[in-house]
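Q: Can someone sanity-check these two? First one:
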Amino acid sequence: MSGGTEFKMKYGPWALVTGASSGIGAEFARQLAAEGLNVVLAARRKTLLDELGGQLRERFRVEARSVVIDLSQEGAVDDLWRTVVDLDLGLVISNATQAARATRASGR
């Protein structure tokens, strides 16, 4: 990604990243913040979300909102929507996984 101002004009001021507490999701959040987008970080692990949000605010001078949520639960998508409805959200990175279910399905 590059061209911060153009990127922000194209997608708006806010992006949502699910599965943002670590790995690829956290890196997506870093890249978006580097482009100047404020980010909503959604995942199950509050401590990791809050740490990442603090890093993004300090390093990139953006806003970061942590949403602790398990998207595998019934009604979770509606709950997530209620936490972002007040934002001008222009980009969603859906990176949440269901590793526990995949592990059970594979018999591991």
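And here is the second, same format, sequence then tokens:
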Amino acid sequence: MVIPPILDNKHPSMPSVFAPAALLREARRQKGLDTVAVPPVCILDPDGDLVRQLRQSGMAQPFAGWPCYHTELDTFDLGGHRVGIVGRVVGASFAVLVAEELFASGCQLLVSLTSAGQIVPAGQPPYFVVIDRSLRDEGTSYHYAPPSEFAEADPTLVKKAAMALDQSGLHGVVTRGPTTPVCQVGKPCSAPAVGAVLVFSHSGKVVARVRAGAGGRYAVRLRSGYYAVRVSPTPKVGSGLRPLQVRVRAGVFRRLDFEIDTGIR
């Protein structure tokens, strides 16, 4: 049997001649950039819709230290963590290039999140599909892995992703303000409430406590339902926490910011 050219003289176990670190080093040299690690968790957004929405809402900020010639890296808060996102990475060979550069820059987990059409009805759109294997007909992967019909995903990651889609809760930022008697235009009048503890109660029973971390960010998993929320310890001055009542929807991990009134007037 004649070996197809794409498989001829391929040795997947051998180290690659192409070194992403070398490409990044030269790109940083030409652009005058320092070596800065990207967030450990990053997202590929082939459609570009996520990046567009994050930018329009002001939630995403450009990552100035990203040296790639062909893409832009943004960062935003997700579940109490800072994550990276690269938009419009379309095509297997291009996606592999960007992925290699991200991993060489400090990324430890990379997730590709895109849209797809529904051929066979599997539920009421919109819904998520966790891919556990893919048919290898694109060609690019044959330069990286031995021939096979499918590329199999890590079963542990697949299980964790499926479990995450069944979870619900809240994440966001807790701030404390006003921080000055007179707020001035163009100057912040509140500050992250680092260390503040949010206490969530359901039917009169405390079910969760979470402490705001760096930047006032918090994240908490909760079952669907209505919750009363308070801050601990209870402030001696000011009107306290807002909002005091929240709703958590099943399968939704949404952003909700809290404010603690200081009483400064």
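A (reply): Looked at the second one. The chain has a mean pLDDT of 90. Residues 92-104 form the longest helix (13 residues).
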